[in-house]
């Protein structure tokens, strides 16, 4: 828990109870006191990921890309802290959700008695260059998906600052964990085809358990603590080695790459200093490199 942490302001609303948001809501419900209100969790469909809503959670349908700000505010009425964890569906336009949907959500949030907003973004909002990138990296990515993420971040920062609402942006690395194991994240490790490039790009991942820790810690920050926190583990093993180890664990030969391996990893390495110094998160999974078989 952060130094000088504030008590959790309840009720807490988790918008987007999916792969990350569902365990965040469950963890918040598990830490609630006897007289605390239930955690409000939303999904687009109004259904829980596995069909069974844990105790202490009130589930409501909410599609921020489709509703007006007043209608969104009605769904979230009474919330004093807001966690935003949504992700687009397979056919959903990313900008419509992350930028326009977030714009509507923030307009609704301005009418609620919020004391903290935690927004989960992605390390794709950082440029893809051969360097260590910290929490305050000012440069935008070139890739369109990443630029949408960065635009959403700027929208959160500017709107919350304009309303003097304490905010934290958690810039998550690639999420893995139960139901999204590394072999599924890196499906190419089991393919027979040739993989593009040389596989020497560093990896920037985080286990879901540690991402949940980061969200809970961000909710307890003092009101004057506002900013961006990169949420990644300590491991930046190149994709080539990760793929080879996953293939070996599956009893397969290592995948073939378009080019031979270079002498060293080349690409962005996302630093996690603020995750440890500000949020005081002790990583349960500091490395994602599979053990050799």
UniProtKB/TrEMBL annotation:
UniProt keyword Signal, yes or no: yes
Entry keywords, A to Z: Signal
Keyword Signal belongs to the record: yes
The coiled-coil regions, if any, are none
A Pfam family recorded for this sequence: Epimerase
Q: Which InterPro entries match?
A: Epimerase_deHydtase, NAD(P)-bd_dom_sf, NAD(P)-dependent_oxidoreduct
Q: Which GO terms describe its cellular component?
A: cytoplasm
Which Gene Ontology molecular-function terms are recorded? aldehyde dehydrogenase (NAD+) activity
Q: Where is the signal peptide?
A: 1-29
Q: Which residues form the NAD-dependent epimerase/dehydratase domain?
A: 13-230
Q: This protein's superkingdom?
A: Bacteria
* Protein name listed in UniProt: Nucleoside-diphosphate-sugar epimerase
Lineage in the entry? Bacteria, Pseudomonadati, Myxococcota, Polyangia, Nannocystales
